[in-house]
UniProtKB/TrEMBL annotation, chain A:
Transmembrane helix in keyword set: yes
Keywords: Cell membrane, Membrane, Transmembrane, Transmembrane helix, Transport
Name this polypeptide is given: Nitrate ABC transporter
Topology relative to the membrane: Multi-pass membrane protein
GO CC term (a single one): plasma membrane
Alphabetized Gene3D superfamilies for the sequence: MetI-like (1.10.3720.10)
Chain coiled-coil ranges: none
Subcellular location: Cell membrane
The ABC transmembrane type-1 domain, residue ranges: 210-378
From TrEMBL, chain B:
Its membrane topology: Multi-pass membrane protein
Name of the protein: ABC transporter permease
InterPro entries: MetI-like (IPR000515), MetI-like_sf (IPR035906)
Domain ABC transmembrane type-1: 105-298
Classification via Pfam families: BPD_transp_1 (PF00528)
Similarity field: Belongs to the binding-protein-dependent transport system permease family.
Keywords (A to Z) from UniProt: Cell membrane, Membrane, Transmembrane, Transmembrane helix, Transport
Listed PROSITE patterns: ABC_TM1 (PS50928)
Gene3D superfamilies: MetI-like
SUPFAM superfamilies: MetI-like (SSF161098)
Biological process, per Gene Ontology: transmembrane transport
GO cellular component: plasma membrane
Record organism: Thalassospira alkalitolerans
Subcellular locations according to the entry: Cell membrane
Phylogenetic placement of the source organism: Bacteria, Pseudomonadati, Pseudomonadota, Alphaproteobacteria, Rhodospirillales
Length: 391, 309
């Protein structure tokens, strides 16, 4: 796609053209289905002034930018602002004017128009280049966030517009409401699963693997024997030991921690052993000329050189640990915990509670991963992969 | 593979057999495996001894140490079954039972394997398509890539049961829900490596394609895709393994009807530890075989794609 710049370009902006056309058609096509009782349409565009204004605005702005082109970042901001206004009006129309479950072609054309605007706007922001780091970084962050919000909006509109049953897929807003209303339960589950089981299992698993790796590193024979096995173990469905651990260690968090220890042990072992061999021959020779002993070389050269590998394992393990804890809870648990809540609420068809629990798990998982990634940045800031990319 | 040749060479060389064997990989791996077996037997005796002694005391029976060890390795519901017990159970359920029977592990393995493979195919296709989109469209890279990555910090495996139950509620049962979970798990490593692989051609090679006036499609087909193959297969090995995990976890909530996951769950309900261990080991074997198969395909494809062997 060629970038359209300046007002003198003859080339029309395709996305804005689509947006304007779709918005124009949405004013004409019926907005809702026909009510079975009265035999009339449930709502007309004229009944909902906010939506009508949004549609008209889309037509005007779309037409204008079809001609102007969206070359500047300011234009993209205008387009995105119009799209946000449109999204707001669409949601209002759905819930306040009875469109939910009855939306038809007019409404979906409007959503199509909004999609074209959002896509074009994000496209321009994604191509934005600035030499000022702050501006460039905020543009880089804005793109995925805008995309994520758009996905949430589409989810909401599709669920509400088509009247998808709650059991199948609840709307994001319903999940959010449920999340806020049941923070006590969620906090208790979080404490049981994350603070007790995940953290302790993760620390024990990664810590013991780290120590074993350093011991194994001193014995080349063990290294050759353990590494291929460790690599193979990572391909095995280790999560299957969950029922055995629940039998051995009981229903409380200890059995979950045990599952996590087993799951996290081998990735950490393999990565640490590989990392300890990552230091180059030149560096090792240099340490030898300094007459540095085993421990000094280990602490000053080999462990720092192994850090990228170790953090790689820590990141992999951060997601594995949460999965291990939740799945292990399916095999038996006291009456609290994220896995327990998910399996019981599924049985009672309280799907919005399950989704709230999933949102919690996602938040916890992302935060955990983010914390490890942050620590990695601090610890291995020298690594080439963290250098700022200049375009 | 190198380890095998190392041992064979050792046999020919004769005198230095031992040192040769131990310097490769095969020797150390065998020793570590043997050590694991010894630990396993020792653990079985130690862990099962208390219940066995309890049993003796209740029966007012006198016992010797040898007898204790023998009995701990032959319990019906041991805390930790001995390797030979698991092997017997596996032989019984794999070879000695008709494969149509519900007691046959082959039957259960097939149930799990079919959804694993279906999910693997879907996931790989989805992963490759996403990667092609991400490589060719800048906006997709910037907007989608962060979400592809963060999608994996969500413990999807944990909600696998819900996906199965909810899809079951609208009439989708059997293979497909489990395959969907496997798909979700599979696509991620494939996307990440394919993006890397499709970007791996050097600037000089891309420039050559430009001098040939090659179209985007031609560049993709004859340069980008072949150079992405090593990356693709590395990720496929990961993908097939987690696809199996997804299928097993997807079976947990179906009320223990069929599949390796159902065997695990049924075993844990009724305290049938031998059954759990045999299902677990079977799953491990299946995973290992599939990874080896993918590796075999990899070598074939790489040779066809012009890799220097």
């Amino acid at each position: 796609m060629k970038q359209v710049t300046g007002t003198h370009s003859v080339k029309l902006d395709k996305f804005c053209l689509v947006a304007a056309t779709a918005a124009l058609l949405s004013l004409i096509f019926p907005l809702t289905g026909i009510d079975a009782e009265t035999g009339k349409q449930i709502a007309f565009v004229g009944d909902i002034p906010g939506l009508a204004i949004a549609m008209a605005l889309c037509v005007i702005v779309g037409a204008a930018f079809t001609w102007l082109g969206v070359g500047k970042i300011q234009y993209a901001a205008i387009i995105l602002a119009v799209a946000v206004f449109g999204c707001w009006q669409a949601v209002t129309a759905l819930y306040d004017h009875g469109l939910a479950g009855h939306a038809t072609s007019g409404f979906w054309l409007f959503i199509l128009s909004l999609w074209a605007f959002v896509w074009r706007g994000i496209d321009v922001v994604a191509r934005y280049r600035s030499l000022e780091t702050a501006k460039q970084q905020s543009a880089n962050i804005l793109v995925p966030i805008a995309f994520g919000i758009w996905l949430l909006f589409v989810w909401e509109v599709i669920v509400a517009g088509f009247g998808v049953p709650q059991v199948l897929l609840p709307a994001p807003s319903a999940i959010g409401v449920r999340f806020i209303n049941s923070t006590d339960t969620l906090a208790a589950d979080f404490y049981q699963t994350f603070i007790k089981a995940v953290i302790s299992g993760y620390v024990i698993g990664c810590g013991s693997a780290f120590i074993v790796a350093i011991a194994v590193d001193r014995v080349p024979f063990l290294k050759r024997g353990l590494l291929p096995l460790g690599n193979m173990v990572s391909a095995l469905p280790i999560i299957g030991v969950a029922p055995i651990m629940v039998m051995w260690f009981g229903f409380d968090w200890q059995s979950k921690a045990a599952v996590i220890v087993i799951m996290t042990f081998f990735p950490m072992l393999v990565n640490t052993v590989t990392g300890l061999n990552a230091a180059g021959k030149l560096e090792k020779d240099l340490m030898a000329t300094y007459a540095s002993g085993y421990w000094s070389t280990l602490l000053r050269l080999r462990l720092p050189a192994a850090m990228p590998f170790i953090f790689n394992a820590l990141k992999i393990n951060s997601t594995l640990a949460l999965i291990g804890a939740i799945v292990a809870e399916f095999f038996g648990t006291p009456i609290v915990g994220m896995g327990f809540r998910i399996s019981t609420e599924v049985g009672r068809m309280n799907v919005d509670m399950v989704w709230a629990e999933i949102a919690l798990a996602a938040l916890a998982g992302t935060a955990f991963y983010g914390a490890v990634a942050f620590a990695e940045r601090k610890a291995t800031s020298w690594h080439p992969s963290f250098r700022v990319r200049r375009h | 593979m190198t380890s095998n040749t190392a041992t064979m060479n050792g046999a020919i060389a004769g005198p230095s057999l031992w040192s040769r064997m131990m310097s490769g990989q095969a020797g150390p791996v065998t020793v570590v495996l043997m050590a694991l077996f010894v630990i396993w037997y020792g653990g079985a005796v130690l862990m099962n001894a208390p219940t066995q002694i309890d049993k003796y005391n209740r029966a007012d029976q006198t016992w010797t140490k040898m007898q204790l060890i023998e009995d701990t390795l032959a319990q019906e519901r041991p805390i930790l079954p001995a390797p030979h017990q698991v092997a017997q159970e596996m032989y019984k359920t794999i070879f000695a039972t008709k494969i149509t029977s519900k007691r046959s592990l082959v039957y259960h393995t097939w149930v799990t394997l079919s959804s694993t493979l279906l999910g693997f195919v879907f996931g790989t296709a989805l992963g490759i398509l996403l990667a092609i989109g991400i490589v060719h469209v800048v906006t997709l890279e910037k907007s989608l890539m962060p979400w592809v990555i963060s999608s994996q910090t969500i413990p999807i495996l944990a909600i696998a049961p819900m996906v199965v139950v909810v899809l079951g509620a609208i009439g989708l049962k059997g293979l497909v829900p489990k395959a969907i979970i496997s798909t979700y798990l599979c696509f991620f490593p494939v996307t990440i490596s394919m993006v890397k692989g499709l970007r791996s051609p050097q600037v000089i090679q891309l420039d050559l394609m430009r001098t040939y006036n090659a179209s985007k499609w031609q560049t993709f087909w004859s340069l980008r895709l072949p150079s992405a193959m090593p990356y693709l297969f590395a990720s496929l090995k990961v993908a097939i393994a987690i696809s199996l995990v997804g299928a097993i976890v997807g079976e947990l909530p179906t009320g223990a009807q069929a599949g390796l996951g159902a065997r695990l769950l049924a075993g844990s309900y009724y305290g049938q530890t031998i059954q759990i261990w045999s299902a677990l080991l079977t799953a491990a074997f299946v995973a290992a075989i599939m990874v080896v198969l993918v590796g075999w395909c990899e070598r074939r494809v790489l040779v066809r794609m012009g890799a220097r062997s």
